Each structure stands twice: as structure tokens, then as C-alpha cells.
Amino acid sequence: MRAPPPPPSPSEQSGTFAELLQRRLLEIGRSPAELAEAIAVPGHYIDDLIAGCRRPPLPGRTDIYSKMTSFLRLGRNDVVACARAERAGAAPTGASGPRAHVRELLLSLCEPETARELQRRHARGSAELAGFLQRLLDVTQGAVRRVLDDQIGLKLAAVEQGSTYLAARFKVLEFLDVTADTLTAEHLTEFLRPRIARWDVDLETGVLRVVFRPQGFAERSAKTGTD
């Protein structure tokens, strides 16, 4: 007689990312607050994930999944696979780009001649500017992601800013999940301007060039409030 198949792993069971978290917490007898503490985020972050009002972050833009996997005692790829599937299955939204005042701030960092041409094309209805600005944001988020790996540096920065480590870390996580459509002037002031000296794009080939400020400039800017 053939042995029955093994029960499905948590990730193989149908359901959303929110349902995976809720089900697994119940199975191991732990609370959302304990999960939040384990992955170093505010309690409302987990509450929002479980409620389904916050989408799971991109795996490449966060460090929470390895900690979450360990706490929930799941397979190595269970959480990430579920997050990827949910994001891939989300209805696509038309990228309209940043709001007008944020767009102007981003263009102020662009090579002037290129910025003027991009503004002319945008005024004629071209959608390419939104794509270039999303790529610029992607590059910046890749640089900011490394901040999460420097726990000591983030704690020191939090103290110097009169904040807490948890609040500073949450602010970074929030920025890493924004898109060009949801980018704000505050995001630009805190994360983009301290890092980007100038950017340019070849309008024929679409090649984006980003010149970063010297290493450490972002930290000095955070202390002084200047750029």
C-alpha cells in the first residue's frame, strides 16, 4: 500500500501573504507583536501586513524575510516565494510618475540641458520621463538598502537625529517600498538629495548615468540638515 503524501508546507497551502503570517503565528503559538520584535519593526507594520492593507515588500528591498523565516520556522524560500507571488499577481497600475513638485525637484538634479528636453517632451505628452525617474529611484533604493546592513551606523544616526533605532529603521524600510508615483518631497530630501550629485540620461539610447556624492555625505547631511 502506497504511503500517503506528506502534508503541504505552509507556503504550498493556498492563501495570501497575510493568511500565511496569520496561520503560521497561530500554529506556533506566537503573537504579531512578538514577530514585530523579532524582525525589528513597529507592531503596526505586522498588523498592516496581516490585515492585507500593506503589500509584502520586494525581497531585494528589505531584510525582514530571513528574520521572519527563522521566527516562523518556515522553509528557506517559503516567505519570499509567497511575497513574490502576491506582488506578481497584483493588478498593474499605470505609472504616472511623481507629482509635479516632486518631479521638478528630481529634474533639478538632472543635467540642465537634458532636464529642459525632458520637460518639453513631458509637456507634449511623452511618458518616458516617468520611466527614467522610476529607474533613478531604483538606483537610489539599491544604495539605501545597504543602510539596513549597518545596524551600528543606523543606531548612531538615530541618536544624532533624536530618534530611536526602530523609528529610523522603519523610515528606511518605508522608503525602500515607495515607487515614483508615491515618492514625496520628504523622501527626496532625506534619501535622494544627500546621495545624488547629478544624473543624466542619453535620450537616444536610454542609458542612465548617476553620479553619487562622496561616501559619508549623506550622514553629514542628516546631521546638519543640509545638502
Structure commentary:
This protein is mainly alpha-helical and 227 residues long. Helices cover 56% and strands 5% of the residues. The protein folds into two domains: 12-89, Orthogonal Bundle (434 Repressor (Amino-terminal Domain)); 100-224, no CATH class. The chain has a two-stranded antiparallel sheet. A hairpin with a 6-residue loop joins strand 1 and strand 2. Helix 2 crosses helix 3 and helix 9 (151-160) crosses helix 10 (165-176). The longest helix has 18 residues, at 128-145. It is globular, with a radius of gyration of 21 Å.
Q: For the residues shown, what is the average pLDDT? A: 88
Low-confidence stretches: 3-7, 220-227
What helical percentage do the residues reach?
A: 55-70%
Number of strands: 2
| Secondary structure category | mainly alpha
Largest sheet: 2 strands, antiparallel
**What's the order of the H and E elements?**
HHHHHHHHHHHEEH
Q: Beta fraction of the residues? A: under 5%
Gross morphology: globular
Query: Please, how many domains?
Result: 2
Cα distance spanning the termini: 73 Å
Counted by DSSP, the helix tally is 12
Main-sheet strand order equals 1-2
Radius of gyration: 21 Å
Please tag this protein with its features.
12 helices, disordered C terminus, 227 residues, two-stranded antiparallel ribbon, disordered N terminus, 434 Repressor (Amino-terminal Domain), 5% strand, mainly alpha
